[in-house]
Structures are given as C-alpha cells and as structure tokens.
Specification:
This protein is mainly β. Helices cover 5% and strands 52% of the residues. It has helices spanning 31-35, 247-253, 275-280; strands at 2-3, 12-13, 66-73, 79-88, 93-103, 107-110, 116-120, 123-136, 139-152, 155-170, 175-189, 201-209, 215-221, 231-233, 242-244, 255-264, 267-274, 292-300, 303-313, 316-326. The strands form 4 sheets. A 14-stranded antiparallel barrel has the order 3-4-5-8-9-10-11-12-13-16-17-18-19-20. The radius of gyration is 20 Å and the shape is globular.
Length: 330
C-alpha cells in the first residue's frame, strides 16, 4: 500500500486513482464502517462514537461521555490504533477529540546502489477536534479540524485539514442522508521542500431501514471530485492489460455498498462491497474476496465490541477491533 525511498525522496502512499502522501486518511478507524465497505458517512448510532469517524455531523449530545478505542492489523505488517471521546455541548451540540496512529512496521534503509544500511519505522499521526450542532428539525451539521504529522526516516511533515459534514435523519422512518467535504487544507511543513496535496473528497451517503425488517441498507458515493477513475484489468495474466474507463466502470468505482442486519440493539452483522478496492487490487493477485468486508458487534453490559475483516488480495488480510463504552454507565 505504500512505497518508501530512503534516499533522495520521501515516503508516499500509492493507489490507483490517487497521488498524495495522505491517502491513509481514507482508512477508517471504525470497525462498523470498515465492515460496511470502508466508506460510510450516514450510519446513525448513538451508542457507537467510532461510527462518526467519517462525518462529524453524526456526533451529538446523545453520545455524551462516549469513548472508544480501536486497533487494526493492516496489510504489509502495518499496525494502526485510534481513540475517540465525545462530550455534550449544551442540549443541541457536541464536541470531541480523536487520535489516530498509523505505524508501518520496519522498513529497510538502502543507499542508491542497493546497499542496506539499516532500518527505520515510518508513521503518521492524526489528531482531531470535532464540533457538531443541531441545525433544525432532523438536520445536524459538524466540522472537524485535523493536525497531521508524518515521520519517515529523516523526513517529516505537518499538515492541517478540515472536514465539513451535514446529516438529515428521520428517526420515524429510520432514514439518513449525509453530505461531506473532507480534507480541506494543506501542508504547513513540507517533506524535503516537496509539497504533497491532501486528498480532498466530496461524498454523499444514504442509509435506510428496509421496512420493518432488521436490515439497513447503505450506499455511499465518494471520490466525487473526479468522475474518471480508470484502471488496468490484468485478467488472468495471460493477455495484455486492458484499460477500463467506461461509464459503468467509473460509476461503480464511486460507489460503496453496505447492508447491516441488526435484530436487537445489542447485536449487528455487517457486509460491505467496495468495487474500487476490488479493482485496485487486481494488479496484486485479486481474489474473490477482494472488495468484500464483514463485521459484527456485540454490546455486553456497559461495553460494545466490534470486529471487522477483509482480504483485499491473496497475500494479505486485514482485521480491526473496536471497544466502546460510556462513562455515564460507571
């Protein structure tokens, strides 16, 4: 998921359709969101502070004193960890703080001639502060300010970003519609005098309960700042790669689908599909499971536990764990 050049350059994430050093911001710290395909800005759950990860407008006073921690074992031996706290700001507002750590394991340091001279451990840290407020009946808005620090060997950088979000929620119909603009901002301190842009994104999300059933459907459109997201399809490797850039291909690379089965308030199971993940991983031995993700959660007494699993490609699987609680329960 990333390449690092120890000499003469800086570390940078690489993915099809992206060209920034800050694409780790697309990785959610919520097992609920990860199980629903990795992108979701419309799921409303007052008992899960981690579900506000990609839309600050989902935070509210009903989450007051909610706290959550998470861990993720990512591809390439990477280890991610995060924590979040949300408190009430009067009867109609909420504030919160969050911390997300991305550690990429040990990387070899080599000279231009290929001689290995040591190892180092690149990492990124994102600290965020959020605020949300009711805007009227069924409407809520919010924003998050994020301070992003990167340390890659002798190179470091600092950036500031802002997320803006709005959510409409009809509790009677259990229907939610959200709109977000994420990662507005720029670098304050550059990598070795080299500028890297932030991955600004516009997203629209919708979640809806299916009648009186325990199922909830979510559809999220992302990467809306750019319509064309072409990719090379390698097929079975016996023929030359084919460039996919048609209307349907571009459309589905913008969409993430999720369905949640929640028979009680204390238990849920998630299934998600992210077509862009599936096609991005086609270069790296894509398998049938690529693009799919699953998750589940259980609330026991004062604690909620959530897990999620995905296998983007044959050689690597990812696992995430969240634990949430509310300090009012103690």
């Amino acid at each position: 998921m990333f390449a690092c050049l120890a000499c003469g350059s800086v570390c940078a994430f690489a993915q099809t359709g992206g060209s920034t050093a800050y694409n780790y911001l697309d990785i959610s710290g919520s097992s609920r969101i990860y199980g629903l395909g990795g992108v979701n800005i419309s799921l409303v759950d007052p008992d899960d502070v981690m579900a506000t990860d990609q839309n600050p407008a989902l935070a509210g006073p009903e989450m007051s004193r909610g706290i959550g921690v998470g861990y993720m074992r990512y591809v390439g031996g990477s280890n991610f960890a995060n924590a979040k706290f949300i408190g009430a700001a009067g009867q109609n507002g909420a504030w919160g703080v969050g911390l997300h750590y991305f550690g990429y394991g040990s990387v070899k340091e080599a000279l231009p001639d290929g001689t290995v001279v040591g190892t180092f451990s690149p990492s990124d840290i994102a600290f965020s502060g959020i605020y949300s407020h009711d805007l009227g009946r069924n409407w809520r808005g919010g924003f998050a300010v994020k301070f992003l620090y990167s340390s890659y060997h002798s190179y470091s950088a600092l950036a500031i970003a802002t997320d803006l979000g709005v959510n409409w929620f009809d509790e009677d119909r259990d229907s939610s519609l959200s709109f977000t603009i994420s990662n507005l901002g720029g670098q304050v301190k550059k990598f070795n005098d080299r500028s890297e842009r932030l991955p600004i994104d516009v997203r629209i999300g919708w979640s809806k309960a299916l009648g009186n059933s325990p199922f909830n459907l979510s559809i999220t459109a992302w990467n809306l700042t750019k319509w064309k997201l072409p990719y090379w399809d390698n097929g079975d490797g016996t023929k030359d790669p084919v460039l996919k850039n048609g209307f349907m291909s571009n459309l589905f690379r913008h969409l993430v689908f999720g369905v949640e089965w929640k028979p009680t308030d204390r238990f849920y199971v998630d299934l998600g599909y992210n077509y862009k993940t599936s096609t991005d991983m086609s270069t790296y031995s894509r398998n049938f499971l690529s693009g799919f993700s699953v998750g589940a959660g259980l609330r026991v007494r004062a604690f909620g536990v959530g897990v999620a699993f995905a296998q983007p490609h044959k050689s690597a699987a990812t696992f995430m764990l969240n634990i949430t609680t509310n300090l009012y329960d103690f």
